[in-house]
Design brief:
alpha+beta; about 25% helix
Length: about 100
C-alpha cells in the first residue's frame, strides 16, 4: 500500500453568525484588540447571503453593522469551505476619509 502524504487541518465547526447588535459589537471589539488577525464570523445558508454579509461589514452602512464602522476599518472575505459558506473578518484600522 502506497501512502500519500496529505495535509489535514483540524478546525472547530463554524458557528452561527452574530445576529444581535451586542454580539456584533463584542465580535468587532475582539478584532480591534488583534489588528490584522482573521476571525470567522459564521456560516451562511446560501452563497448570496455569505457575500451580502461580507459586503455589509465592509461598508458598515446598516445600523446592525455600526460596530464595524467606519467603512473600510474592517475587511470581510467570503469563502466556500467544504460546502459551508463562511465569512471571515479582520480589523485593519483606517477611516472613511
Amino acid at each position: 500500500m502506497n501512502a500519500r502524504a496529505i495535509t489535514v487541518r483540524f478546525d472547530e465547526p463554524a458557528h452561527d453568525p452574530f445576529r444581535r447588535l451586542e454580539s456584533r459589537q463584542a465580535f468587532a471589539d475582539a478584532l480591534r484588540s488583534r489588528p490584522g488577525a482573521w476571525a470567522l464570523l459564521g456560516k451562511f445558508v446560501t452563497p448570496g447571503a455569505m457575500r451580502q454579509h461580507a459586503y455589509e461589514i465592509r461598508t458598515a452602512r446598516d445600523p446592525k453593522d455600526q460596530p464595524f464602522a467606519p467603512a473600510g476599518a474592517f475587511e470581510a472575505e467570503s469563502q466556500s469551505v467544504c460546502g459551508e459558506y463562511r465569512v471571515y473578518v479582520r480589523y485593519v484600522g483606517g477611516d472613511a476619509s
